[in-house]
Amino acid sequence: MITVLIVDDEWMVRAMLRTIMGACADIEVVGEAADGAEAVRRARELAPDVVLMDIRMPRADGLAATAALARLLPPPKVVVLTTFDLDEYVETALRHGAVGFLLKDATAEQLAAAVRSAAAGDAMLSPQVTRRLLRRFAEPGNPHRADARRRLDVLTAKEREVLAALAEGLANGEIGRRLHLSEATVKSHVSRLLAKLQLTNRVQAAILAHRAGLVA
């Protein structure tokens, strides 16, 4: 059972999310919070697997709360859920350790899939956010491209293949089938490449791959 903490300053949104999550047999909502400060406190008490996190809230916003949650041991997986798709919000949330970023117009299926992906150690971005963000990072004139390419020098050829497939949005099983590897082997490659690149999650790795021009 995947346990979830819902964080939003609007009670109607929390109620809607609780209803959506409650319809999933493998997901259990264990608590709610109305601001970032309460979210951190409740996460310490409840140790949820996944936190659905709003951004704009009183007292402490979702970005500050996400950074604080990343320091917990073990840290919960944070999926940011917001009406705002500004690039700086996405970048900051990912830098603070969020593993997913969805807009509030996401479908119930997308929300449930994001929770399951986060709990499984994968990541999920809203399609429109992904297109905008990765397209910008992949621009040939991006000043970070040379630095990103240098960072990839620490990877083996196989790790680069795995990273390229990961950056295309493939899950571990799909990567394994493409590269003729077991899912366990793919998972090991992903763990090693994240450690080598000093990254927290797969979304950050995908962004780096696109920034380096590893994938089109």
TrEMBL record:
The modification 4-aspartylphosphate is found at residue 54. Residues 3-119 form the Response regulatory domain. GO terms for molecular function: DNA binding. The keyword Transcription applies. Pfam families: GerE, Response_reg. GO terms for biological process: phosphorelay signal transduction system; regulation of DNA-templated transcription. Keywords: DNA-binding, Phosphoprotein, Transcription, Transcription regulation. Residues 148-213 form the HTH luxR-type domain. The keyword Phosphoprotein applies. It comes from the Bacteria. InterPro entries: CheY-like_superfamily, NreC/VraR/RcsB-like_REC, Sig_transdc_resp-reg_C-effctor, Sig_transdc_resp-reg_receiver, Tscrpt_reg_LuxR_C, WalR-like. PANTHER family: TRANSCRIPTIONAL REGULATORY PROTEIN NARL-RELATED (PTHR43214:SF24), TWO-COMPONENT RESPONSE REGULATOR (PTHR43214). This is Two-component transcriptional response regulator, LuxR family.
